[in-house]
Design brief:
Length: 142
């Protein structure tokens, strides 16, 4: 009886250590037309979404899109420009589904997002809470 209780307690402890919680995020959609020359050039590129990691990063992250690894590195926001890193998702058809998952090593939590392919950029930042901003504007870090 004791080995069964010990095994059950060990299994519960293992699940607690390896469990992950999803992070609640706020989504913002900016529908303004491109205004700068850089916006216009960026919007000409077909079937691509620019993913930018901005304020609030100070952790090792593991980023996948449709279970394909895009990034596995330590991201720390540069205080001078509010930028931590970026990459581009490409796709063949806007009817596709692009599932983005960002796992944070320190906190053992994650953000999951079905990327809205109607926008050209997704900015991810943490101010008071995690904020995902979809836009067609291209913001270049200083």
């Amino acid at each position: 009886m004791k080995p069964i209780l010990f095994l059950l307690a060990a299994l519960i402890a293992f699940q607690k250590v390896n469990a992950q919680d999803s992070i609640r995020v706020l989504r913002q959609y900016e529908n303004d037309r491109p205004t700068t020359q850089l916006d216009s050039v960026f919007n000409i590129i077909p079937n691509a979404v620019y993913i930018s990691f901005d304020e609030g990063f100070n952790d090792s992250v593991f980023v996948t899109v449709n279970n394909v690894i895009y990034m596995d590195e330590y991201l720390k926001t540069d205080e001078s420009n509010g930028y931590a890193g970026s990459f581009v998702i490409t796709f063949k058809d806007s009817a596709e589904t692009e599932d983005l998952k960002i796992k944070f090593a320190k906190t053992n939590r994650y953000i999951e997002e079905k990327v809205n392919l109607k926008y050209k950029a997704l900015h991810i930042r943490k101010l008071d809470q995690w904020l995902l901003t979809y836009t067609s504007h291209f913001i270049m870090p200083q």
